[in-house]
Structure formats: structure tokens, C-alpha cells
Amino acid sequence: MADTETGFWGLFAAIAAEEGERVYARFDGWTITFAMLDRISASAAAGLQGLGVGRGDRVAVMMRNSPGALALIFALARAGMVWVPVNAQLRGEGLRHVLTHAEPRVVIADAELLPWIGECGAALADVPVVVAGGEGVHRLEPMLDAGATCDASPPGPAELFAIMYTSGTTGPAKG
User: Fold this and answer.
1) What would the pLDDT profile of 66-90 be if each residue is shown by its tens digit?
2) Which of 93, 107, 147, 151 has the most C-beta neighbours closer than 10 Å?
3) Which residues, at least 6 apart from 68, have a Cβ–Cβ distance to it below 8 Å?
């Protein structure tokens, strides 16, 4: 088993390799094993790399809880990408502020949330948008199922993993 020197990712990878059928989570009737999460997160990470996202790049994720959202978090972690979770209830100026300030290399969102992203006024013309649960040029589900592997070296325990924004109750949200 991995020790604390390998960080979160080392521990996850060790469990996936040694006890792959161990249940990691259950969601709405789905059973998600360590091996399954390892496989689909590797595929999603490779898909994001194919879009030009690399280690240290920020990825804004505006998704509700789902197996795909969970796999995506692990994909970002394994590839050393920076997860920027965006509240699925955020709208208007607050959403524009977060998407502008975070400077994401890519945005991933549930299909039903795309109208709010489009209407918020964030300058995302050159930022690829990956759609979960809908149609688009880039879709999350094929990335999860492609069976691709991620060629990134595992992140170290001190590498940046996430930038979470405050609620913004006393001014603009802070990351």
C-alpha cells in the first residue's frame, strides 16, 4: 500500500491496482469500483489532454453530482490539472466573474447549464466547452468510454489540485 509520501493519487492508484473490485462509491443505483474509476478517469484525462489541457491548466467544471462528475475529478487529479468547481446554481455576474477570473483552459458543464454560461458574458470564445449529457462538439461521455490511457506522471502531494471560489457574500467571489 502507498504511504503518505505518494499523496492522494498514489494511495488511490495502489488500491485500484491491489483491490480493483473494492467499491469506491454508490450513486443512484450505480456501483463504482476503484478499477472502474481508475479506467474511466484515465480515459477522461487522455481526452482532456487531446484538447490541449496539460498539467497545471485550470478546468472549470459546472456539473451536478453524477458518476461522470466523480470520474472527472479523478481525471483532473491523475493528470495534474487544476479543478475549478463552479456552483451549478451560479448565474449572471457571479458566474461571469468566476469563469473570467479562473482563466480556465476548458469548461466542462452539464448540458442544461450551458445557457447560463452563454448568457453570463464571460469571454470564452477560445475556450473549448465539453458537454455532459447532451450534444456538442466535445462531449464528456465518449471521453469516459474511449478506453484511452493518460500519459501524465502522477502529481506530487504538494501540487495544486483545486481552486474553490467563495460564495462572494462580501464582494466578488475569491478563489
Assistant:
1) 999 999 999 999 999 999 999 999 9
2) 107
3) 132, 133, 140, 141, 144
**What are the tens digits of pLDDT across the range 1-30?**
445 566 778 889 899 999 999 999 999 998
Half-sphere exposure of 7 (CA within 13 A, CB side): 12
Can you say whether the dihedral through the CA atoms of 83, 89, 91, 93 is positive or negative?
Answer: negative
Q: What residues contact residue 39 under an 8 Å CB cut-off, 6+ apart?
A: 147
Distance CA 45, CA 58 (A): 13
Q: What is the DSSP letter of 24?
A: E
Dig out the grid coordinates for 78 from the structure: 491523475
Tens of pLDDT, residue by residue over 101-125, are 999 999 999 999 999 999 999 999 9
86 neighbors 95 (Cβ within 8 angstroms): yes
C-alpha cell at 157: 502531494
